[in-house]
Specification:
By secondary structure, this protein is α/β, with parallel strands linked by helices. It contains ten helices and 15 strands. α7 packs across α10. The radius of gyration is 20 Å and the shape is globular.
């Protein structure tokens, strides 16, 4: 069993890492790093049998972990990721796992030099709606694909991280861009518009739209907001043979915040209600497509297998750097009011 410690026990560590490590095959939760009294109390209440460490250094010194999940805020992530790598631990780094693509590649080189596995936690590849859309595309139900529209609007201003190291592009943008690169392949150009607000923490991007042209010839259109009093997660795919549209409930997040955990009943976990199944429309008419199961714990299943077998983790640092390159280009596109051309990775 791969012993994984969780570094940080805020929303990420509490809701999106610890429960899925506990539900994954081949993994066991081996402790939590928490410092603030309130956070320590929450960790003890949720995980009474787990050791609570005051720092990553203390967790490493215990000798009780093989890997760590770094879930702390972005500005603290660099030092912690490098400390864990230097100690010879395998690492899952929450997104965005580096400030930019160049520093992401530095992390990748450091991990390879040390011989450890470094993975990026792009867990939303394992959302029900994305998994369902992926199967529609694999089955070529739309024929030759033209474009995908991906919209994620949350009425959730309290979770917008303020200032230059925060913002919605680094937050939801990391997920939405990764999903499109995963489904459609490398992007060759980026065109973005970002909307900013002035918050106590500084000027902050609070919503965005991005158009990606992919090397495959398909284009994707991505948008998100947290400040416009909307709740809508929608995917639209258009192709020669028809269209596929779905509006999901973000079921895994809903279950987590209601106190449910995947390990308690994995067979019923992560299924969108039938009222939110997608519709495929072709020349033969409209067809409701049964939603696939959402399974964030599959990320940790695959990460443990990568450590055990020497296979790549579900999202490598190199792939994470490509997502960050798109985010870097999106900022440049918005600032300069033009499309940005990207170098396409091969091999």
């Amino acid at each position: 069993m791969l012993r994984i410690g969780v570094v940080g026990y805020g929303t990420g560590g509490k809701h999106f890492h610890a429960p899925f490590i506990q539900a994954a095959r081949g993994c066991t939760l081996a402790g939590v790093v928490a410092r603030a009294e309130k956070t320590i109390a929450a960790a003890k209440a949720d995980l009474p049998d787990q050791p609570i460490y005051p720092s990553l250094t203390a967790m490493i010194a215990s000798g009780q972990v093989d890997a760590v999940a770094i879930t702390t805020p972005p500005e603290t992530r660099r030092e912690l990721v490098l400390e864990a790598i230097a100690a010879g631990l395998h690492v899952v780094a929450d997104k965005p796992f580096a400030p930019d693509a160049a520093r992401a590649r530095d992390f990748d080189r450091a991990a390879k030099a040390k011989g450890v596995v470094l993975g990026v936690y792009q867990n939303r590849r394992f959302d029900s709606d994305i998994q369902t859309l992926r199967q529609v595309l694999i089955d070529r139900r739309l024929g030759r694909l033209w474009r995908i529209h991906s919209r994620m609007d949350f009425d959730d201003p309290a979770t917008l991280e303020a200032g230059p190291t925060g913002g919605l592009l680094r937050d939801l943008g990391s997920h939405l861009v990764d999903q499109m690169l995963w489904l459609l392949g490398p992007a060759i150009s980026v065109d973005a518009q970002m909307d900013h607000v002035n918050l106590p923490g500084g000027r902050t991007d609070a919503s965005f739209t991005i158009t990606l042209r992919h090397e495959s010839g398909v284009h994707s259109h991505i948008s998100a907001t947290k400040l416009n009093r909307l709740n809508c997660r929608e995917l639209r795919a258009y192709g020669e043979a028809g269209s596929y549209v779905t509006q999901s409930t973000d079921i895994q997040a809903q279950q987590l915040f209601s106190g449910k955990r995947p390990a308690a009943d994995p067979t019923t976990w992560g299924y969108e209600p039938e009222t939110h199944w997608g519709t495929l429309r072709t020349v033969t008419g409209a067809e409701i497509i049964r939603a696939a199961q959402g399974r964030y714990h599959d990320y940790y299943d695959l990460f443990a297998a990568a450590v055990r077998n020497g296979t790549p983790p579900p999202v490598t640092a190199e792939v994470g750097a490509r997502t960050l390159a798109v985010l870097d280009a999106a900022r440049q596109s918005d600032l300069e009011n033009r499309s940005i051309t990207l170098d396409v990775p091969h091999g």
